[in-house]
Structures are given as C-alpha cells and as structure tokens.
Amino acid sequence: MTKDHIVIREAIEQDLDAIVRIINAGGPGGKQREDLPDALPLKYRRAFEAINIESNSLLMVAEWNNLIVGTFQLIFVTYLAGGGRPDAHIEAIHVVSNHRGKGVGTQMLAWAIDESKRRNCRRIQLTSDKQRPEAHRFYIRSGFSLSHEGAKLYL
C-alpha cells in the first residue's frame, strides 16, 4: 500500500455497512463493541442520515483500492470562549487492523487538520480511550499533545 492509493472522501450511504463494522471492530483491547447481524439495524441508517444533514459534521472514509480501510467524523463547534472561531473535534477515528501502520491514520488526521484550518478553526481536539497507549503515541507523533484529562458520563 502506498499513500498515493489512499483517498479521503465524505462517506456515502453505500459506505455505511463498512463504516459501522470498522468502528465495531475497534473497541478497546481490539474487542468488538457489539454482535452485529448481517443486515445492520435501522438505528445506524438513522444516525447516518442525521449526520449527513448536519452542516457542521462530516463523516469521512479512507479508501484504498476501492476498499474502505478507515473512518472518522469531524465536527465543528463554535464557542464564545473562542471569540466565535470554531473548534474541530475528531470522533470515531478507526483504521482496520491490517492497515494500521501504513499511513492511513496519518492521512486521515492530515485531511482533518487541513479542513479545520480551511474553516478557520482555532484548534482541533480528540479523545482516546486510556486503554489505547498505541493510539496516544500515534497522536503525539502527529503533533497532538495530551494536554487535558477528560471525563464521560454514560447515559
């Protein structure tokens, strides 16, 4: 695989199955998040449609030789603290396991950073599970700093 063969593009409806299965396979410790049936539940199509109509949210895929090998969502949020400039948030960044270490994640982050600059964002943020030290090393190599401690409340 060469970097020239990787295309970063906005997801289309036909990509949904691949995206969900990539995200599902990328749980902490490499465990599946849930048992997925052959036909995806309707909740995923509804979520895809909601993301698609939101102008401040982009669902992206990384494609190599017509195969989806990565995905991420880029969300733009405007804060008063930022003087009206938006922040970019990267969510659900995943690369299929047999394509990790081949530049896919690097290209996805580069695309997200370029798009965030194009939109005049003041910063780009992401969160990563504490159980994923290899991901943290990747983000640091990519120029991110582990500057904040996060918290979540699951509802």
Question: Please, could you describe this protein's structure?
Answer:
The protein has 155 residues and is α+β, with helices and mostly antiparallel strands. The chain has a single domain (3-141), classed as 3-Layer(aba) Sandwich (Aminopeptidase). It is 30% helix and 25% strand. A five-stranded mixed beta sheet has the order 1-2-3-4-5, with helices on both faces. The model has no long low-confidence stretch (mean pLDDT 90).
Question: How is the topology of this model organized?
Answer:
Layout lengths: L5 E5 L5 H10 L16 H12 L3 E8 L2 E12 L7 E10 L8 H15 L4 E4 L6 H9 L14
Parallel strand pairs: 4-5
Antiparallel strand pairs: 1-2, 2-3, 3-4
* Terminus-to-terminus distance: 41 Å
CATH architecture: 3-Layer(aba) Sandwich
When the domains are counted, the total is 1
* Beta strand count: 5
Q: Summarize the helix and strand pattern as letters.
A: EHHEEEHEH
Structural class: alpha+beta
Instruction: Give the % helix.
Output: 25-40%
Strand order of the largest sheet: 1-2-3-4-5
CATH superfamily: Gcn5-related N-acetyltransferase (GNAT)
Look at the structure and give the mean pLDDT: 90
Q: List segments where confidence is low: pLDDT < 50 over at least 5 consecutive residues.
A: none
